[in-house]
Structures are given as C-alpha cells and as structure tokens.
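Reviewers of the previous submission asked for a worked example of the structure-prediction workflow described in the proposal, so we include one complete record here. The input consisted solely of the amino acid sequence. No template or homolog information was supplied to the procedure at any stage.
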Amino acid sequence: MTMAEPASADAKAHRSALDRFLKEVERKALRMAELGTRNREDAMDLVQEAMLGFVRHYARKPSDQWAPLFYRVLDSRLQDFHRRQTVRRRWRVWLKPFADDDDHGNDPLAQAADAETLGPAHQAQGRQALGELDCALQALPPRQRQAFLLRIWEGFDGAMTAGIMGCSEGSVKTHLSRAMNTLRERLEDHR
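From that input alone, the workflow returned the following structure tokens.
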C-alpha cells in the first residue's frame, strides 16, 4: 500500500460526505429560496449558485461547520438577488411603465400531495392553510423571513443564526419576534 492510497480514500470519503450534506440541505434550501424569490426557476438558480460557492470556498472546512456556512452563502445569494431586483425595478419604471410583474407561475407547495390520507374536506382545508402560510411567509420582509426560517425551520440557535445573517443576536431576536407576531396575526384563523 502506498502513501497516495489512504489520501485518495480520505478524499473519496470527504467527497461522499459533502455530497450527502448537499443532498440533505437541497430541499430546504430550495424552499427557502422559493419563499425569498417567489419564483421556482430563480430559486433553483440561487440554490445552485449557493452550492457551487459553498463547495468552492468551504468544502475543506470541518463537516460540523458546513450547515451554517452553507446557509450564510445562501443568505448572501438571496440578498444579492433582492438588490438586483430592486435595481431592475427602478429601470423597469422608465423602460416599461405597464409591465406586469405578477406572473410568477404555479406554486409547487400548493401542488404537493398530502402524506396522510385524509378526506377531501380535510385535504382542502390543509391546502388552504399551507397556501396561507406560504403567502404569509412571502409577505414577511426578507430579514424577518430569514430569521424565522433559520431559527424555527432549521433549528439554528441565536448565535448561529446571527452569524449566518451577518447581524447581532439582538437583531435576530427582533426580526424573529416581528415575524412571529405578523404570522400569528395573519394565520389567526388556523389555530
């Protein structure tokens, strides 16, 4: 056995672990990006960019640091997307005063099948609730939505979320509190 064989075995194991990690975060990252962009194609592009950027810059980091680093990259891509959209909207005002920006296609969440076999009335009620939750999350300001998704959906603690979002823990708490209050108000009928 040569010295190169263990190194290549370690490299293969590392690549395999990296692939597993990316597969694990792919679905949640796509959903986060869809909520942030309101467009599946844009979301898919952002997740792909985030994954490529993550692999390029952070793949050699210890695996226990991957999740916060990946979500930091995704958060940066989402912020860049919103900045570009703001600039484009400014120019559209001058170039296309009557452009219709409301055509965002079908919502994949509304088309998802219910895992439980409930009656049609319960299924319709569940689809309505999911649709309203989706709308409520999309209506949140981007920083509040990110704080909510990272803390509640991903389960990161305050310090980790602050690191991902590039702000203080106090800001995360403020964003999360405001998001929770808004969601409670908008989803009052579904308690």
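DSSP finds eight helices and no strands in the chain. We consider this example representative of the routine output the project will generate in years two and three.
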